[in-house]
Design goal:
The chain contains 16 helices and 8 strands. It is of the alpha/beta class and 417 residues long. An 8-stranded mixed sheet has the order 3-2-4-5-1-6-7-8, sandwiched between helices. Helix 6 packs antiparallel against helix 15. The longest helix is centred in the N-terminal third of the chain and has 32 residues. The N and C termini lie far apart (50 Å).
Length: 417
Amino acid sequence: MNTLKHIETEERMIAALLYDYKATIDKTNTMNEDLFTVNRHKEILRACMALAEEGQEIEPINVSQVSGGFIKVHEVANFSFDYMDSTNFVIGDYKELERLRQLREIHSQLQHQLSIVQNSSIPAEISADINENLVSIIGSTPQSNSTLQYQSDRWADDLNDRFDGKKAPGIPTGFQELDLMTGGLIAGNLVVIGARPGVGKTTFAMNLAWNVVAKQIPVAFISLEMMSNELVEKLVSREGMIDGADLKLANISNGVFETALQAKGLIEKQPLYIIDDIKNDLSSILHRAGQLVHRDKVEIVVVDYLQLMSAGNSSENRNNELSKITRAFKQFAQRESVVVILLSQVNRKAASRPPKIYDLRDSGAIEQDADLICFIYRDEVYNPESPKKGQADVIVAKHRNGEIGDFSLTFRGQFSR
């Protein structure tokens, strides 16, 4: 039994909302979708809130229409039960759902703290004591249901959502060829983007992040190399189509200055969190990433870049240290159900040819831990007479759940595009 959720209580609360939305909200004072664990329950709540805001009747047909047909009329009608208009009944259910929500949050935070301890460099005996205490606490909180019936029901729910066209397999990157290959970025996956310095991996990652936040999906960009001011300038250059070199030197006209301010006004409205005030050790990065996921509902965490990180043990073999880092980020992605994108350097041997997996620097474990590995290569960086000027090749070298291949993108470095 999964005591982190109670489906029957969720169904009763949804039925109460459908029966008398205003009275239910008045009794609970507030209502948000985090109380619910079933996607359809969340969708019905969102539809009810939208209808109430517009002053429309909360009827099954209206709920179905607002959801775009995602919720069928008969599904709404099926939420019928012998509802008694009892304040204690609704308030009791609300308190129970809120208690379960808090338990889920505590459980997730404890799992995160346990991962940090397991990957830290504190003395083994202290780590063992902390680990034992955290495990006992986590053990005392309900564990997720791992029965095959439960997992297959979740899969069927997910398949139904995709079949109805209401859910993509993953988060679209905005790069059509990449999305066709991968179905988008999948929650729980570790993605590695590799390239030589100066080729454009940060620019590619920033453009991907921008494409995602443009759909109001929160993204965290943790930069260990560039200051946030530099990255903001890249975004302004991108959105304003202003030459980055001119912007850096302020070698611009009054008109371009106004364009830059307009671009600034556009980018500041998007849910992109740029983090540059952070230590480069694994524990600090995981802790900040966890905060962003829980507090700001971030769905993608980008880290630029892998080789600048430390696992906290300076005496450890570098290959082993980076293996620990990639494994920790893969575990973080799975535990928090987010996408982690790690940027990585590649060896000098790939300086004049498209990189291959074995060119990834310092860690053979990257190939094992990563679900998706992409390389960026621009021939014009190494060949002045290249016929591929203004072009970046994206090489999908590993895809755990699909095809590999390559495609080309237009590269306009002066505009960070």
